[in-house]
Hints:
By secondary structure, this protein is α/β, with parallel strands linked by helices.
Amino acid sequence: MFVQPRTVIAWQRKRFRDYWAKLSKQGRPDRPPVAREIRTLIRKMSADNTRWGAPRIVGELRKLGIDVSKSPIDKYRVRSKQPPSPTWKTFLKNHVTDLVSIDFFVVPTERFKMLFVLVVLAHHRRRVVHFNVTEHPTAQWTGQQIIEAFPWHAAPKHLLRDRDAVYGGQFQRRLKSLRIEEVVTAPRSPWQNAFVERLIGSIRR
């Protein structure tokens, strides 16, 4: 049978999706859905108290005997239509010359082995200043990549990242030693790190 290379790639991607979908369901029950009454209460509390964040709403619900984690609170709460001042776009514009973004993406091998790729992107010229691949990402390994990416005289002022657990204590101590300030995106907001997300999409395509 003769097929084009893109057909083989499509087969491999489908095998990977089916494999991990099956693996993730083994022995792991689904998270119970949030009841409609609780969702309505979350929306009402957030709408009536616009200054309350998700942690505050979690605490208030626990006072009522309702145990809900922070994740569904962020999902169902009402957000203010007016952005805070300054806006995220303004921050990125003001610090474009001294801002870098980092993020991981996953590359599956033919035998479903997982490789984690770290990309460090400078915003000013949209230039990849560093990347590396590992099978087991840790905070120590990730912090070492920042050391290798930026010599002492070239460290940026701000580093934009998401809330991945791999950016732990050892990673944060590395940044402090380089005098780099962390800028953490909001939960489930990849658009706040759009430049590196677009780069990862281009690499995948």
